[in-house]
């Protein structure tokens, strides 16, 4: 076995051990994400936020803007990313035309979108970032 293969196997073993340790901590505890003015919950899909045992923050839910502005929410202290994040999300305008929007999560905790805020619906499911990287 070459040195590169050995290194790859060690990295895989370490990743599996880290995943097992995170899983041993149990499922993350979800909290409701408080929305900024002008943003509301859509279809009972309340936006929620959770931190898992490996240091990854997860979002879920759907929100709609009324044109007030691009600031969707402020991420609670301790859950902000270590570096600004720009994440692609699915969006629609009034639920009919599919759009692709950017969701920017700043180290300050400000979560903003590039989607047109007038009736834009954003899907937050699957948005994830690390608090360490």
- Distance N to C terminus: 32 Å
Strand order of the biggest β-sheet: 2-5-10-7-8-9-6
Total tally of structural domains? 1
Order of helices and strands: HEEEEEEEEEEE
Number of helical runs? 1
Radius of gyration, in angstroms, nearest whole number: 18 Å
What summary fits the major beta sheet? 7 strands, antiparallel
Strand content: 35-45%
Top-tier CATH class: Mainly Beta
The CATH topology name reads Immunoglobulin-like
Give the proportion of residues in helices: 10-25%
Architecture, CATH level 2? Sandwich
Task: Tell how many strands the DSSP assignment holds.
Answer: 11
Which class do the helix and strand fractions yield?
alpha+beta
- How would you sum up the global shape? elongated
The CATH homologous superfamily is named Phage bIL170 RBP, head domain
Q: Could you write a compact summary of the structure shown?
A:
The protein has about 130 residues and is of the alpha+beta class. It has one helix at about 5-25; strands at about 30, 40, 50, 55-60, 60-65, 70-75, 85-95, 95-105, 110-115, 120-125, 130. It has a single domain (about 25-130), classed as Phage bIL170 RBP, head domain (Immunoglobulin-like).
């Amino acid at each position: 076995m070459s040195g590169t293969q050995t290194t790859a196997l060690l990295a895989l073993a370490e990743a599996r051990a880290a995943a097992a340790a995170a899983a041993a901590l149990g499922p993350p505890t979800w909290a409701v994400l408080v929305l900024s003015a002008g943003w509301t919950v859509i279809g009972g899909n309340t936006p929620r936020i959770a931190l898992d045992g490996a240091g990854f923050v997860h979002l879920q839910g759907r929100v709609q803007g009324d044109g007030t502005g691009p600031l969707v929410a402020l991420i609670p202290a301790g859950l902000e990313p270590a570096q600004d994040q720009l994440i692609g999300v699915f969006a629609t305008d009034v639920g009919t035309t599919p759009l692709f929007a950017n969701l920017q999560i700043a180290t300050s905790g400000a979560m903003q979108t590039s989607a047109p805020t007038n009736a834009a619906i954003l899907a937050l499911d699957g948005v994830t970032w690390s608090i360490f990287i």
